[in-house]
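thought: fold this chain, then report.
action: predict
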Amino acid sequence: MTDNCPFFGAATSLTNHPTPIPNTSFFNSFDGCTFDIRNDGTQPMLILGFASFFTPAVTQNVKVWYTTTATTNVGVQTNPAAWTLLGTAQIQGTNSTNFAGMESDIPVGGLVLQPGESKGIYIETEAAFAMRYTNGSFTATDGTLTVLSNGFAGAANFGNTFASRAFVGTVTYQTAVDPTPVQIAGLPSGAEFPIGTTTNCFVGTDAAGNTASCCFTVTVNEYANPIQSLVCNDLVQVSVDENCQAVIGADQVLEGGPYGCYDDYIVELDKTLPFGNGPWVPAVVGPADIGKTYQVRVTDPDTGNKCWGNIKIEDKLPPVLDCQPYSLYCNTSTVPCQGEGPVFSSADPVQFPAAIFPHGGGAITVAGNTLPGGFFFDLRNDGPEDIQIFGYEVRFGTSTFGAVSSPQLVNTYYTTSATTYNGNQANAGAWTSSGSASVTVAGPNSEFSFFTLPAPFILGAGQTKGIYLHGVNASLVYNSGGNSSAAPITVGQLTLTPGLATQNEFTTSALTPRTPNVVIHFALPGDGLPCLPNGLELNVNTFATVVAATM
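observation:
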């Protein structure tokens, strides 16, 4: 189904706010702000409109421009020839002194972005109408649309500019979807068409309410000129399948022909001696029938004609041995098994970084002690054997910045579809939970608080995983500024690569680089024999030895 206009799905909004939203006013009577938008999806995208904060509380005209000779606002802020007017709308401003108020809608849309395409956007106000923005540069994305607040604010339209200024607001869009026609007659997909002619009809409706319909026919013919008599094979051998079952069809029993559709004939078995006088049962066999011979008959229901033969049930499929490789450690003993998988023994925990700064003196929380917050980082096993990560120690903020009560809930994750946190901060599907732990806060001065993982996991030799620890109600402490670095830290057989801090779970609104204050508790393979699969035992011959006969 196609149309001259794309089919677009439901409207989606992406809000581009810094976290936390600053309360400082940045009006400066500026005439708007520039930024970039990018389609990261696989389908065309229709921009429906925008929203932002304006002052004073009057109605004024706002214009929305987009770049045509460039794919970004950067470098063309003062070049009107690089921009095309998308539309103009009257906007009702507010007198809000921070970003806590309601945004004002800018109902200007109609811009279509192809997959991977970027455009610079300029929201321009009248001289006496100021658009609120904030300092800095940050990015918001939902995986389909990305808003890059890498722009500028201007004191005059396409005039002198001030960097770096970030758009604070919302972009609303729709993505193209595949239309689904509605079937109004005929058989559904996957149905068997009977002999004869069947007509299927469909109707399609586009976004404007226009409709169109089409029909097609499916004709099923019988075999040409089938004979009326039936001839059965004297003896048919049938093998059961991998489930030790078989359904016998007329095509397996009849010979000669041509016949009609084999599904039209009735196939029955007589399993009770003496054969030939019934009872006749459906031609379905199972394990109890293997090795037996029955009488079979085929009946044409249209004419009542029949033929008889014999059928032998066999099992010709050999057994399948699935011998999976299984690894044992060289230091395992021969004592009875102690559970699935290798047996681990706790090793000395490792602290990152080695120098822990006091809270407020180089170590901070993402948004205050009693607000949620956590951090991402990568962890690599540099050792020669697998290890088990079974616990962490984290720091909650010192009571100087707000008392943290006990217990606190910490959500823990590790990557499964990726080897790093980087690029997967907002992709919850890339992570596996290692459990939500209830943590007893060690003390009021940001001491390390230990907790055991509800679901320990294996970090293979040479393997790297992204790690994410998030305090649900109280932020975790990390190093920042000059006390934080993106450089990997190696202690013993573990290497930690610092990542970023974030207030809300799985969001790209983050601070980086940040070094987590964390202690890793892990275990090394120790003595003890793991259980082998299928109840096998070490050094025990499960299959009897067969000695070939000699002549």
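thought: worth noting. The chain is about 0% helix and 45% strand.
final: tokens above.
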